[in-house]
Design a protein that fits this description.
Blueprint lengths: L13 H10 L1 E5 L4 E3 L7 E7 L1 E7 L5 E8 L5 H9 L6 E4 L3 E7 H10 L1 H27 L2 H11 L4 E3 L2 H8 L3 H13 L3 E4 L2 E4 L1
Antiparallel strand pairs: 1-7, 2-6, 3-7, 4-5, 4-6, 8-10, 9-10
Helix pairs in contact: 3-4, 6-7
Length: 203
């Protein structure tokens, strides 16, 4: 069991820990696989122990915007809200890398929350963090120009040279490939980036 990256795990009492171990189901999913679609009702919650998952929403004309990426030790609020309330998920989830983790069914999640104040506090904390992140996303879309947002996204990758596509950036930032390509060309003309096939290099 590799749930030590979850802040609540080592604080659980022995009975709650035993309950959790009994009801978890281990999973492995390769990269580029959909875990659930926007509109699905989730029956399980994912506890991610390795890899990354991208959460995004999609419009009627198939445009996408990334809401956030889930990493090990984090719990997805879209997955959690859908599972606990048995309502449709407001976004989709796709594996960015190969992932490993555990699934916990809805009734067991509810039981865990009622058994453990520690886990309840963890649930409240993830809602606070994600709401803050989503508020920042809305603020950026409304008030920041696309060239600023593209540069911010490139800098967040923590490398001077980023292997990516214009379509990936468009999906991350809620734009279109054509518009992103135009803005990237403008950034290259002003010597802020260098463009090569499949790569973007920051000056």
């Amino acid at each position: 069991m590799n749930l030590e990256s979850y802040s609540f795990y080592n604080k659980l009492d022995s009975n709650t820990l035993e309950f959790l171990k009994k009801h978890l189901t281990p999973i492995k999913v390769p990269k580029n696989n959909i875990l659930f679609f926007q509109g699905d009702v989730c029956d399980n919650i994912l506890f991610l122990t390795s890899g990354k998952v991208r959460l995004y929403i999609q419009s009627a004309d198939a445009d996408e915007i990334t809401l956030y990426q889930l990493k090990e030790g984090e719990q997805c609020i879209i997955n959690t809200a859908s599972s606990i309330s048995q309502t449709e998920a407001i976004g989709s989830a796709v594996t960015v890398t190969d992932i490993e983790g555990y699934l916990l069914d809805t009734s067991s999640v509810k039981a865990l929350a009622s058994m453990s104040d520690v886990y309840q506090s963890f649930l409240f904390s993830i809602y606070t963090l994600r709401i803050s992140a989503l508020a920042k996303l809305v603020n950026d879309i409304k008030f920041k120009k696309l060239d600023e947002r593209i540069l911010d996204w490139l800098k967040s990758q923590k490398s001077k040279t980023i292997e990516t596509t214009h379509e990936t950036i468009a999906n991350e930032l809620g734009s279109t490939r054509v518009v992103v390509s135009r803005v990237l060309k403008e950034l290259e003309n002003t010597q802020k980036v260098t463009l090569t096939r499949g790569c973007i290099t920051l000056y």
